[in-house]
Every structure is written in C-alpha cells, then in structure tokens.
Amino acid sequence: MTPTSQSEPPITLEIFQHLVGLAALELDDEEADYLRRELNQQLQAIRNLESIELPTDLPITSHGVPYSPETRPDLRQDRAEPSDMADAILEQAPEVEERFIVVPDIPHTELE
Amino acid sequence: MSTEICELPAHEIAARLRAGDLSAEAVLDATLERIGKVEGGSGRLGGDSSGSQGVHAYISLTEARARDQAHAVDHMLETGSDPGLLAGVPIAVKDIFCVSGTPSTAGSKILATFVAPYTATPVARLEKAGALTIGKANLDEFTYGSSNESSAFQPTPRNPWSASRVPGGSSGGSAAAVAAGEAALSLGTDTSGSIRQPAAFCGVVGMKPTYGRVSRYGLIAFASSLDCPGPMARNVKDAGLMLQAMAGADPFDATAAKFPVDDYLDQIEGGVRGMRIGLSPDFSRLRYPDPETGKLRDQALQPEIEKQLIESAERLAAQGAEIVEGVDLPNVQYGIPAYFVISRVEAASNLHRYDGVKYGYRSEDKVADMSELYRKSRGQGFGPQPKLRMLMGMYVSGEQYEKRYYERALRVRTLIRIDFERAFERVDAVLAPTTPTTAFEIGGIYGDSVSMQYADLLTVPANHAGIPAISIPTGLDNSGLPIGMQLMGADFTERKLLQMAWALERVQESRPSLVQELLHA
C-alpha cells in the first residue's frame, strides 16, 4: 500500500481494489465509487482517535464487561451430541447431489 | 381513546388470561386484525420503496405458529397448568434471530431464502413462557443502520407517529410494530443503540441489557463483543417482564453470564427515593465531524430534548432521587470513531461465512471456479452497508494499520469503560437523552454513512462499556414526534434501572398519529 498525498484520499484506488479482493466482492463501477468515497469519509472520522493521548500501559478492552469467576459460565463438556438437523441444514444448500453440496472447481496451485 | 385488546400491556394480557377474562386466541385475533388495518403490506425483496400507506413493520408473518401457540396456552389454562410469564402475549421478533422453520433473512438478499433449522435461545425462552410469535420484524440489512432504510425488503417500516419519518434502526420494524399495536413486545438487538434509538423515535421503551445478560445463540452476528438482545415494549413493566423471561446463562453461548438473574418486577414500583442519578455535560455537548475536514465541531442538542432532560431530572428529584450534576465522562465523545473501527473489524470477520455455498443466495451467473462464485454471490447478495463494513474492517485491521486504528480503538474503549466505572462510584445511574434529535425524514441522511453512524452518538458509549441502559419515552417535540431519555447503570443493575425507569415513564395515552389515521381511513 502506498503513502497518502494531499490530493489523493488515503484509501486509493489501488488500496481499495486490494480490499475488495480480500472481501471477495465483485462490484460495478458506480458502487465501487460510492463505497470508496464513503470509506474515505469514515476514515476522516476515525482519524480523530489519533489525537487522543493514551497512557502507554493502558490495556485493551475486547468486550465491555469483565468476566469473573462469578459471571464466567462453565465450559461445556467436550463431547459429541446427537443432532437431528442434518436434513434441515442440507435443505438450505443451493445445490446438493446425494447429500453432497455441489461447488464449482476449487482453484489450486501445485507446490513446487 | 378506548383501549383495544391489541393495545393492552403485556402484563395485563397475561394477568387477564390467568383470571379467565381473555383467551390467547382472542388476543391473537385482535393483533392480526390490527395488522390487517395498519400494516399496509410487509416488506419484500424487490418491493417498491414508496409502498402503500402503512406501517410496514414486518418482513414475514408467522400466523400458523402463533395460532398453535395460542391453542397450547388456552389448553394449559383450561387444564389448570401454568402457561408461563408471557401467556398469550403477542411478540414480534427482529428478523436477525433464527426461528426454526421461518425465513430468517437479516433484511438481506443474501439470506432471503434461508429458513432457520433451529431457534435462537431468547426466542425459545419467550415462546416457552407462553408468548405468541406473530412474525419477523424488518430491520436494517444485517442491523447496519440507524433508520431501517438499508433493508433489502421494501417498503421499509414507517414511523407510526409520522409516515414521512424513519422509525430509527436497526430494530425499526420492532419499534414500529410495538408502537402500532401490531405486537405487545418485540425482541430487538442493540450493538450501538439499535434498540434504544428506534424505541426513542417511536415512543416505546427499549432496553439494552448488560453484555452477556441475554444469550446471543441464534442471533445472526454483527459485532460479537457488542451485540445485546433486549426487550422493546410499550411500558417499563412489560420490558422487565420480557427480560425476566429470557435472561440468564445458556450452555450454547459462552459469553452468556452465569450471574444470577434478579427478580425484575418485585420492586419495580419501589420508587427512587435515595437513589443518586447523575447528569453529565458530556452527553449534552455533541461533537460531530465536519463533512469537509473531518475535524470535530460542537453542536447543541435539539432544544426540546434538552428541555425534556431537565424536566425528567426534576421529576425524579420530586420523587426523592438525588440529582448529581457534573458527572464527567470525557471519553464518550470518542465512542463513534472507536465504534467505526471495532464494529467493522468484527463485522468483516462475521460476514465471511456467507459464500453462496452452504445456504443463502448463490449467483446464477456462469463461473469458472469457486473464487468467482464467492465474488459474484457476495457482490450480488450483499447491499452497500455490509460491503462498507467489510471493506473498512479489512482496512483498519490490516497489518500496517492495526496498531494505529484497531488496537487504539480497543484502548479508547478501555477509557470509556473507566469513565463509567468512576461515574458509578458516585451515582446509581446516568440520565441522558437517548438521541440527539427526534426521528429524521426518510431519505434525509441515508447514503451518508458517517452522518447515519452519528445518530448513535449518545447510545454507543453504553455498548463499549457493556453496561445496561434503558430508553423511556418522556414526551413529544413540537412536531408531535416522541422524545426518549435513557438511564445507564453499572453491570447487572437492570433491576434498579427498571425501577428508576418506571418512576420516570409517562405512558403515552394518545395513539400514534399514523396509526390513528390508518384506523380511520
């Protein structure tokens, strides 16, 4: 990814296309223009975070409520449970053949 | 105004059923009759966004399911068994929850054909308590929005107080259904305000419980560290009743806390004497980014909302609460920028599962390989809001930006949490407006993703901190649109918050104006 300049927004076309590839999306030009414009607007708002002084030892919070022995639920036993949902789950697949989900060719590369 | 059966409070419905004054089937019939009069056609994929006159709260109705449930409740009453806390109470379920055998769409084309093979824990608990599942309520696509306009199912819900205004979001259909008498209760979700903001816009009560108080099993995930299922109701007591039926640990959700569930109703009318309720200048000083420069600028609250805040504090003080002014929460102003980062990273992760292979939409275009199938199915199946979230999530969690954005946002979240911990050393709750404005015009800001996110400015701090918060309708503005105030409390203090909210609420006696018009059309 390239550094930003005054004239070009931080999420350049090149960066945007890289993100679109990572997100596995096919977009038309009009949609791509809208999304890139909005992303750059959002980034302006996000950049206000950079002005906040953070103590170096400030930990992260991955979720608001800390779990304690009082609140943390016990883990389930690691054992298989029978389920009668297999047919209902398979019925949701767009294409099924003999209880296998049909997919197109999976791209692969030979390891050298 | 004479109250119709479909407008009765949930707790009264349950009590009258037990007393033999009313049957579950009669409640169901009255609710379906109301839907027939005011709904005006539910949202559908490819539907007309302008739509006919109506509330358009639902995506799908589940009449047969509700009819079976009503028969079961009436049979239990006839045979002397206990039908449960919510006996015969009609509920709308936000269509972000899986309900076995129902289309569970998340308001998205990519899940439009998905029929859930299992039922989410909160829904299962409500149904076990005797509730009648009327239907699945419309929402912003995957809950991504604050106006309900981003749903792929059109027309989207209207505000029952004005057809030209949004109901808020993302639980807009839920709030509209409850306000319009199309359900007594609704199950919503709140990730940055998605229960409280539409509740405030539609003049109903909405509660975001403590993170982990209600199981997320069966909730189609947005931001897993923030998502909270919670009740929406026409009054505080009903919200408490609904929370009672669904709170508690769940072996299917390792984040559902095992902390004991309080009795939310036994002291709800106990009053606020001696309670300390804080007012914070940081919830009245609104800071928005300038659209040109991105620099933050101050903006005042809508004057009528500020007036309601003062009046609400005075009302609580008159009942014996001690109002503590000047409670500092200096970091809540960073709630939206931090949310822009954290929620996007989590959304990007959660949205990768939709691939056109296992369930949901699959592109019918000819494809060369699996990668192309993914790109086409996701490109055609997702609307712009999920795409924006994925792309931003990828960007801010990229290796070269992670420290600058994602890690920083998680540390800012710590500051917000510390602010509230300090505040709750001084006060039992913080009172603040739920929203900076009342309901805005349909089309007013849709498409501007920054302005839309800032509609959650006052609600998102509670999500970062994980604390419970409840929005209560306190009056109308000069245009006749509802105003909501929220009370935020420390972890697992829902019981006390409901008690304060009961003291503050003023149940709206008049019918929402759009509903009144539709009933007399």
Would you kindly provide a written description of the structure presented here, covering whatever features stand out?
The complex is a heterodimer of chains A (112) and B (521). Chain A has 112 residues and is mainly α. Chain A has a domain at 7-52. Chain A contains 3 helices and 2 strands, in the order αααββ. Chain A has helices at residues 13-22, 29-46, 86-90, and strands spanning 96-97, 100-101. Chain A has a two-stranded antiparallel ribbon with strand order 1-2. In chain A, a hairpin with a 2-residue loop joins β1 (96-97) and β2 (100-101). Chain A is flat, with a radius of gyration of 24 Å. Mean pLDDT of chain A is 90; it is low at 1-5. In chain B, a hairpin with a 5-residue loop joins β14 and β15. By secondary structure, chain B is an alpha/beta fold. The mean pLDDT of chain B is 96. Chain B has helices spanning 10-18, 24-38, 63-78, 121-128, 172-179, 196-202, 236-246, 303-318, 335-351, 370-381, 384-396, 402-426, 449-454, 460-465, 494-504, 513-519, and strands spanning 44-45, 58-61, 90-94, 132-137, 153-154, 185-190, 205-208, 228-233, 276-279, 286-289, 296-299, 322-324, 429-433, 469-476, 482-489. In chain B, 36% of the residues lie in helices and 14% in strands. In chain B, α5 (172-179) runs parallel beside α6 and α9 (335-351) packs across α12. Chain B is built from 16 helices and 15 strands. In chain B, strands 2-4-3-6-8-7-14-15-13-9-12 form an 11-stranded mixed β-sheet, with helices on both faces. A two-stranded antiparallel sheet of chain B has the order 1-5.
